[in-house]
Amino acid sequence: MTIKLWGDNYFDQGGKKWKNHKDADDGKELKRAFVQFIMEPVIRLCRATMNGEMEKVDKMIGTLGVTLKEDERKLQGKHLMKNVFQKWINAADALIEMIILKLPSPVEAQKYRAAYLYEGPIDDATGSAI
Questions:
Q1: Could you write out the three-class secondary structure of 21-70?
Q2: Where are the domains of the chain?
């Protein structure tokens, strides 16, 4: 699915098929897959929380597996939105996952970073370790 979300990929719901152009079978213009499946739902949730539309919010967060406590349900506007998004997309968890998945191990990183960090001569006792 990740491959389909990036680039010029469109999903025609009427025809139930993926396309690489934005023309649907019925002649309508399709939205990019990322916009259709990621951005629009996030924007809908954001607007519903900001406007206090709790029926919509409850339906959406139920699908996401997010639960609000009684005192959190009384929040309004920006505070409600912030609470919902912190529970759904926890920045700390996302950051840790990215560090684990994307950053090289210290042993691997040292091989190519040492030359940038050490400015002294390469042939001395300290530089020869590089």
A1: CCECCCCCECCEHHHHHHHHHHHHHHHHHHCCCHHHHHHHHHHHCCCCCH
A2: 2-89, 105-129
* Two tokens, residue 36: 């259709």
User: Which segments of the chain have a pLDDT < 50?
Assistant: none
Whole-number pLDDT of residue 6:
84
Greatest Cα pair distance in the chain: 73
**Rounded to two decimals, what is the model's pTM?**
0.62
Structure tokens at 103: 């950053």
The sign of the CA dihedral 113, 119, 122, 124 is negative
Q: What angle do CA 122, 128, 129 make, to 5 degrees?
A: 125
**What residues form DSSP beta bridges with 32?**
10
Residue 116 has a pLDDT of 79
CATH superfamily of 2-89: Yeast translation eEF2 (G' domain) (3.90.1430.10)
Query: What is the residue type of 9?
Result: N
